Amino acid sequence: MTQHVNLVLNRSACQVHKSFLQSKFSFCNLRTRGPNIRNTSRVKAEPERGTCWLVGAGPGAPDLLTLRAAKVIAEADVILYDDLGTQDIVEQFSRPQTKRVFVGKRGGRESVSQDSINKLLVESCLEGSKVVRLKGGCPSVFSRITQEMAALQSAGIQVDVVPGVSSVLAAPLSAGFPLTDRDLGKNFIVCSAHQAGAVDWDAACAADTAVFLMGGRAVREIASQMTSRGREPSTPVAVVRSAATPQQTVWFGSLSDIEERTKGERLSPCVVVVGCVVGTAGGGRRL
């Protein structure tokens, strides 16, 4: 009986000793691994990449801004905005703490380069910011959206696009005539007159209505090119400056006299519309 008790006690002692050794070994392992665990906690994580929204501001009047655009602007940490009617929108819809960066371009004036704009967009997003690139009109029309999207996507940044009301559509209506008409304007073409030499003038003349953006310095060239290709000198023309804003000014004329009617005027930013639909302004209807 005594031998049996001793045997049980010896076994119990061995188990206790074994458990002690195991716990001590585990403790030693923890102490060995401890510094490595603490070191990993000191590694600074990279900030989560932000998102960039390419947003159309419309012609510039705040009440023509889309609801989606207003929401995105209100959530932005950084806004890079254009020269064409976006200042009032930024002031009205963005938060006071939002960083605002002016990157407007205007012909004949010192401007921020497109490469610099691309770099600012990418750097701001890599810092984890919600970034809005606010553009006049609609991003889909002559806004260099492809270059900005390419720069952002190559950096692995998510890009969303918010459409806006283009001055192509807003200018004619604001001046009192439609862009199309069942009889007078069954089709239209949109051209950039920023570089008149790059315009497909034959295509412009073939359309019922031709709309020229950035045409402030090209009124004479537009009239000359279109009449030399067969458009009647009496074809109605409208030059709409600052369309759909309180500063809007409209000059009406024809291909033969629009240059004289706008002589000495500051026309930029403007939309030039050529076609018989212009003659319907004010309720008139000239065939």
UniProtKB/TrEMBL annotation:
Any one biological process term the GO annotation gives: siroheme biosynthetic process
Key words of the record: Methyltransferase, Porphyrin biosynthesis, S-adenosyl-L-methionine, Transferase
Tell me which CDD domains the record gives.
SUMT
User: Domain named Tetrapyrrole methylase: which ranges?
Assistant: 52-258
Q: Which Pfam families match?
A: TP_methylase (PF00590)
* EC numbers for this chain: 2.1.1.107
Q: Which GO terms describe its molecular function?
A: uroporphyrin-III C-methyltransferase activity
Q: What class of enzyme is it?
A: transferase
Q: Does the keyword Methyltransferase apply?
A: yes
Protein name per UniProt:
uroporphyrinogen-III C-methyltransferase
